[in-house]
Amino acid sequence: MNILLIGILGLLPSIVWLLYYLKKDIHPEPKRMILRVFFLGMIMTIPAYYIQRAFYEIFSSLPLSPALFTFLFMFIGIAFLEEAIKYLTVRWGAIRSREIDEPIDIMIYMIVAALGFAALENMLYLRFFEEAGAQISHIFLLTVLRFFFSTFLHALLSGLLGYFLVLSYFYERLRWRFLFAGFGIVTVLHGVFNVYILRTGELSQFFVPILILLTLAILLAQAFSSVRRMKSVCVWTPPKHL
Fold it and tell me: What is the pLDDT of residue 238?
């Protein structure tokens, strides 16, 4: 299988979810900004990969029980790190832009960054399995699974974190509580998802991740509705503290 096909299959899940979530914004963002944040999200996958390797080496060198090692690596080395990387992508690539002229834009750009991150992550996974000798049917199956699971998860988690960023702006006295709560919630859900999705031979391998995805989808839908109402009763200016 050539690299071009791997690239197309890796991008496809992110593009489909991107088109879906861009429709949530009544006032569409400039295409150049969407592309900028999306590709910056892709680029940030690279340092995330090497930082994760460093975490793995550090945790492996410590006298940890298997359970503690799994907890530290899954929740800190993967979940928290990836959520922080996606947040930094938006902070550096969009949050100071004059294009952010309404609160829902923060959620949209968080989702865009997440889907860019997931796109390159998908390509790397597909390339790895191809080099390991996986058949083309397995590559297509993996693409479908990543569409419904990993790529969707990235979008949902980042969108929810974006909601907490919006709350931290409107409720200034509780700013840090919302920031900590947002990162805490998405980190825990991401970590639990990873732990269960990697299990084999257990019914809960997919039951718990699906439950997490459904819960996040409902919460994010409610968050979008809540943010739209915020705009109607508040004066919005671009955030300075995020």
Answer: 55
Work out the average pLDDT over 121-147. Answer: 90
Residue 62 per-residue DSSP state: S
Tell me, yes or no, whether 238 lies in a domain. no
Domain span holding position 80: 3-233
What sign does the dihedral 60-62-67-73 (CA atoms) show? negative
Q: To the nearest 10°, the Cα dihedral for 155, 1, 35, 48?
A: 60
Q: What is the pLDDT of residues 165-191, one digit of tens each?
A: 999 988 888 889 999 999 999 999 999
Q: Reduce the secondary structure of 177-239 to three states and give it as a string.
A: HHHHHHHHHHHHHHHHHHHHHCCCCCCHHHHHHHHHHHHHHHHHHHHHHHHHHHHHHCCCCCC
Q: How many residues are listed for the chain in this entry?
A: 242
- Does 135 fall in a domain? yes
Question: For the chain, how many structural domains are there in total?
Answer: 1
Instruction: Determine the Cα–Cα distance for residues 107 and 101; give it in Å rounded to an integer.
Output: 12
Instruction: Please determine, for residue 98, whether its predicted confidence score (pLDDT) is greater than 90.
Output: no
Report, in angstroms and rounded to the nearest whole number, the Rg of the chain calculated over CA atoms.
18
- The Cβ of residue 242 has, within 10 Å, a number of other Cβ atoms equal to 18
Could you tell me which residue, 204 or 163, shows the higher pLDDT?
163
Whether pLDDT at 74 is above 90: yes
- Is residue 167 in a domain? yes
The residues, ordered by sequence, that sit 6+ positions from 149 with a Cβ below 8 Å of its Cβ are 197, 209, 213
The model scores a pTM over 0.85: yes
Inside any domain, residue 240? no
